[in-house]
Amino acid sequence: MKLYCKVVALALCLGILLLLYLFVGNADEPPLKVAKGHRSAPASSGPGADGGPALRPHFRPVPPAAAEPEEEEAAQVSRREPRLHRKPGKRSAPRGKFASLRRPKDQKPSTVQLSSPPWMHLAVVACGDRLEETLIMLKSAVLFSNRKLKFHIFAEDSLMPEFERKLQDWPPSYTKKFEHHVYPIAFSVGNALEWKKLFKPCAAQRLFLPMILKDVDSLLYVDTDVLFLRPIDDIWDFLKAFNSTQLAAMAPEHEIPKIGWYSRFARHPYYGMTGVNSGVMLMNLTRIRNAEFKNSMIPTGLTWEEMLYPLYQKYKNYITWGDQDLLNIIFSFNPECLYLFPCQWNYRPDHCMYGSNCKGAEEEGISILHGNRGVYHDDKQPTFKALFEVIRDFSFEDNLFQSMYYPLQSKFLDTVHTLCGRIPQVFLKQIEMTMKKVYENRVVIQIGANLRL
Q: What is the DSSP string of 247-295?
């Protein structure tokens, strides 16, 4: 009985081992796939029935059956080009049409070349004893302006070398901000001696600037008794405000027609209700050269050069203020050619000596001071004289607030007995803002220089 049990147990163990062997052997062989709807021929691993060599299975070519959606998607994925594994931090080389854009290692990155801003052209005419006054005007222009300037100085022969010498004596930090050209007095049409004696010595020279400065597109002309209290850049921007017919800009001669000179005394045509003052005149010289102007002499238009001398001959017995009167006559017949800028851009004693009447200056401060009537050199308007003297005495390298603004405030305390002296904020507001901007720009430049070191 014991022997029988041992034999049965051994048979069971052998049976279990055989089953395990068969299961593991079938799992190692991959199953043969057969197209749906077709049966494969049986394969033989041993010799044939007739004792011959074993036969390889033969399959009849079968057209591929339509794949299921899941199978088709899997097939497309399997056919995709394998992605390249890139090292982190490196880019692959550009391919195709972008391959030519790859920069060689030794090629430096290109820098954009920005065009420098165009020059601002400033013209002045100086004769007689106007050397110092002109230099103070040019000094105020250089002190506060941002872009570079070109000075066009028309002077008598005796003053030409003095201008050259004085301007070269300015410190390099300021001479690099401008270029200058000194020209002799010249009149292209008419009697030169007659033109020179018109109103003030050489004042008529401004009428001939379009013909003399043929390579200059636009220009700011000022009298010698002008002081800039803010950058010239700001009045230069009025050129952008011109419409298609405007070719010059000036400020009104007065703000109130009832007390204006032209409205009360003029014996010739003048612009608008009060006329215009030519002490500060912005000009598009290209347009002036190309325009034809209506006039009272012939029914057709005349160019600027053709018109000047006949116009003077017709009105010379009726004009008081020389070239300014001629400009008023021209623009009275051609009002569409003139742009009128506010009174704070040509602020004169008339705007405060009878009471403040320039609203723009009351709101924004004076932009350009025009000390006509000789007020820089007498005591009739001490407020104007104080500004002139402070700018004259200022050393280029000094601190603007310590050496200009604070002394100016002190001087103004002695002018309160005049109507102009009672509105110091009108004189100080704009120049204070300008000094702050100049100071801020210097600080930024200095910090930038230190950072580069």
A: -EEEEES-S-GGG-HHHHH--S--STTT-EEEEEEEEEHHHHHH--B--
Q: How far apart are CA 278 and CA 275, in angstroms?
A: 10
Residue 211 has, within 13 A of its CA and on its CB side, a CA count of 15
**Pairwise CA distance, residues 283 & 273, whole Å:** 22
Question: Locate tokens 């305390």: which residue?
Answer: 413
Closest of 364, 329, 339, 240 to residue 280, by C-alpha: 339
Cβ(206)–Cβ(323) under 8 Å? yes
- 3-class secondary structure per residue, 367-434: CEEECCCCCCCCCCCHHHHHHHHHHHHCCCCCCHHHHHHHHHHHHHHHHCCCCHHHCHHHHHHHHHHH
Determine the pLDDT at residue 120. Answer: 98
Radius of gyration of the chain (CA): 46
First to last CA, the chain: 109
Encode pLDDT of 347-399 as tens digits.
Answer: 999 999 999 999 999 999 999 999 998 999 999 999 999 999 999 999 998 99
